Amino acid sequence: MFLGIVVLHVLMAWGAVSGLSRQVVEAVLGPIEATIIDEMPEPQDEPPPPPPEIEAPPPFVPPPDIQINIPQQQQTTAIQQVTRERPPPTPPPVAAPPKREPVIVPPRSNPRRPLTQPEYPPSSRRAGEAGTVVLEVYVLENGRVGDARVKQSSGYPRLDEAALREVKRSWRLEPGTQDGKPVAMWGQFAVTFRLTD
Questions:
Q1: Domains of the chain, CATH where assigned
Q2: How far is CA 99 from each of CA 95, 96, 102, 180, rounded to the nearest angstrom?
Q3: 132: β partners
Q4: 8 A C-beta contact, residue 164 and residue 148
Q5: Which residues contact 167 (CB under 8 A, 6 or more apart)?
Q6: How far is 144 from 113, CA to CA, in rounded Å?
Q7: CA atoms of 17 and 29, how far apart (whole Å)
Q8: Helices 20-28 and 2-18: crossing angle, nearest 10°?
Q9: Rounded Cα–Cα distance for residues 83 and 186 (Å)
Q10: What is the distance between the alpha carbons of residues 54 and 180, in angstroms, rounded to a whole number?
Q11: Distance CA 57, CA 84 (A)
C-alpha cells in the first residue's frame, strides 16, 4: 500500500512538470462572452433636513451678596457647686448557669438484630488460631456501618480480616446519639474467635 502511494505521487509530480495541467486549463478556457448591462440611474439626492433650532441658554446672573450682621452677646460665666451622688452599689455578678454537657450515647448492638458471628476461617481453625479482635466501627445515623478498622489485633491477620469482612457486610447497629438525636460516630466492638471441640 505504501508503495502504491509513492507511485501515485511520482505520477502526479511527472504530470505537473510535463505540462498536463496546462492542457486541462487551456481546454477549460473557451471563448469569453461579454454582455453589456445598462447602468441603473442614480437616485436623486434629497436635500438634507434643516438643522434643529438650538435655544440659547439664559444669561448667567450671579446671586446677590447678602451680609448678615449678628450682634455678639457678652459671655457670662456662672459658677455652681456640683455635688456628685454616689451611684447605688452594683449587685454582685450573678454566676452564669454552668453549661450543660451534651449527653452522648455511643453506638451499640441492636437487640432486634443480634450481631452475626464471622465465619471461622478454615485455615485458622486447622492452625489452632483463636483470639479476640477489638474493632473501631463508624456507625452512620441509620445504623449501617460506614467504616471499620482494627484497634487491637487478635494476633492473627486471617481472624482480623474475617471480623472486618463480617462487620462491613452484615452488621446493623443502634446509632450513637447526642442529646437524643442519632449521629454518626465511632464505637468499639469485640469479636472473639474461640475453638470448640
A1: 104-111+120-193 (3.30.2420.10)
A2: 11, 8, 9, 18
A3: 192
A4: yes
A5: 118, 135, 137, 145, 148, 189, 191
A6: 12
A7: 20
A8: 60
A9: 68
A10: 82
A11: 68
What pLDDT digit, counting tens, does each position of 39-74 carry?
666 666 677 777 777 777 777 777 777 776 766 666
To which H or E segment does residue 12 belong? helix 2-18
DSSP, residue by residue, 25-61: HHHH--PPP----PPPPPPPPPPPPPPPP-PPPPPP-
Write the single-letter amino acid at 116: T
Q: Is 94 in contact with 124 (CB distance < 8 Å)?
A: no
All cell numbers assigned to 89: 452599689
- pTM of the shown model: 0.49
Backbone angles phi, psi at 191, to 5 degrees: -120, 125
